[in-house]
Amino acid sequence: MTTRVIGTGSSIPDRNVTNDELAKVMDTSDEWICSRTGIRSRNIAVEETTTSMAAKAARKAVEKSGITPEEIDLIIVGTVSSDMYYPSTACLVQAELGAVNAVAFDLAAGCSGFLFALNTAHSYLSSGMAKCALVIGAETLSKMMDWSDRSTCVLFGDGAGAAVVKADTVGIRSVVAHSDGSGGDVLTCENRVTRNLLVQREQQFSYTQMAGQEVFKFAVKMVPKCIQEVLDKGGLTVEDVDYFLLHQANKRIIESVAKRLKVSLDKFPMNIECHGNTSAASIPILLDELVEQGRFKKGDIIVMSGFGAGLTWGATLLEW
Ligand code: UT7
Predict the structure, then answer these.
(1) CA–CA–CA angle 93, 96, 97 (5° rounding)
(2) Residue to mutate, 37, 146, 151, ligand 1, most ligand atoms under 8 Å from C-beta
(3) Which of 29, 36, 279 to mutate to test the pocket of ligand 1 (most atoms within 8 A of CB)?
(4) Is the CB of 216 under 6 A from ligand 1?
(5) Whose C-alpha lies nearest to ligand 1, atom 30?
(6) 140-162, pLDDT tens digit by residue?
(7) With CB atoms counted within 10 Å of each terminal CB, which end of the chain scores lower, N or C?
(8) Domain with CATH 3.40.47.10 in the chain
(9) 13-67 per-position pLDDT tens digit
(10) Ligand 1 proximity of 213 Cβ (cutoff 6 Å)
(11) φ and ψ at residue 299, rounded to 5 degrees
C-alpha cells in the first residue's frame, strides 16, 4: 500500500501587498524585487491566523476529497509560525473540523514542513498505523519578519495549503528527506523572550535572520541532488516527470534547478509572482492551484521538492 492525494485546498489572506506598496515604506523597488526573486506581490494576514488559514484550507481539501472529518485518523501541520506554543495548530484544526478520530500534531521543518509532514503521513499509512490523513502547510511568517530588513521581509507571504491523503495502491513512489543542523545558522528566528524565576531576557534576534546568498547556494546545490535521489529510488528518470513542484522561494532558484537537471522550465509551474515565499505552505498552495486548473491527469508523474530552515530538504515522487 502507498499514499494517494485525494483532495487539496488552500487559503491565503485577503490583503494583497504589492512591491510598489512596500517601496513606499522602505528603500526597495518593484524592479529590484521582481528581477532578483520573481515576486510581484504577496498576501499578508490582518485578521487571518495560521490556524484560521490552516482550517480553511483543510475544510476545502476535505470537501473536495468526499470524505467526512470523522474518517481522518491523522492530522499533521507543517509550520514554524503557529499561533500558540501549545496546543498545536493541528489540534486546533482538529477541533474546528470535528475530526474527532484523528491524532494531531505539528511538525517544524522550516519551508520543508509540508513535505516532511507528507512523508510522515506516508509512513503512517504504509505501515497501517493510519488510513486517511490530513496534511497541511500553514504559515504567518509576516509576524516574524524584521520589517526594517529589506533583504528578507520583501520575500515572504502568508497562507496555507492542505491535502487529504489515503492509503491506496497508486500514489507516492519514493521519498527522501535530509537535515544538516550544522548549517542552520543561515536562517534563524530565536524565541522572543526567556523569562523565569532567575532570568529575564529579550532575545537579540527575535525576528527572522537570513544569509540570503548562503541559502541560495545551498538550495541550488541540494535540490537537484535530492530530486535525482528520489527518482533513482523510484526507478524513474527526469524525462519521466510531468511536473516538478518546487518550494516557491525564488524564481532564480527554480530556473537554476531546471537548468542543472536539463529539464524545460515549462515543467516547473510557479506562483511565486503573486504569493511570494509562503514557507511550508508554498508547495500545497501550488498543488491546489494546479488541481483547480485541471492540470493533472491520472498517471502523471510529479516530483515535489522543498528546502529551508534547519537546514532541511527533501523530495517526494508520486503518480497522480
Ligand atoms: O525558503 C527559503 C528561504 N530563503 C531563500 O530561499 C532565499 C534565498 N536567497 C535569495 O533569494 C537571494 O539571495 C535574495 C533575494 C535574498 C537576495 O538576492 P541577491 O542577488 O543575493 O542580493 P544580495 O543579497 O547580494 O544584495 C545585492 C544588493 C545589496 O546592495 P549592495 O551591497 O550591492 O549595494 C543589497 O543591499 O541589493 C541590496 N538589496 C536590496 N535592494 C533593494 C537587498 N535587498 C534589497 C531590496 N531592495 N529589498
Answers:
(1) 85
(2) 151
(3) 36
(4) yes
(5) 151
(6) 999 999 999 999 999 999 999 99
(7) N
(8) 2-169, 174-319
(9) 999 999 999 999 999 999 999 999 999 999 999 999 999 999 999 999 999 999 9
(10) yes
(11) 95, -10
List the grid coordinates of 62: 476535505
Establish whether residue 189 lines the binding site of ligand 1, counting it when its CB lies within 6 angstroms of any ligand atom.
Answer: no
Residues 167-213: tens digit of each pLDDT:
999 999 999 999 999 999 999 998 777 788 898 877 777 899 999 99
Predicted pLDDT of residue 152: 96
Cα 203 from Cα 176, distance rounded (Å) = 35
Please give the single-letter amino acid code of residue 151: S
CA of 169 relative to ligand 1 center, distance in Å: 45
Residue pair 26/192 in contact by the 8 Å Cβ criterion? no
Residue 13 grid cell: 489572506
The CATH number fitting domain 2-169, selected from 3.40.190.10, 3.40.47.10, 3.40.720.10, 3.30.450.40: 3.40.47.10
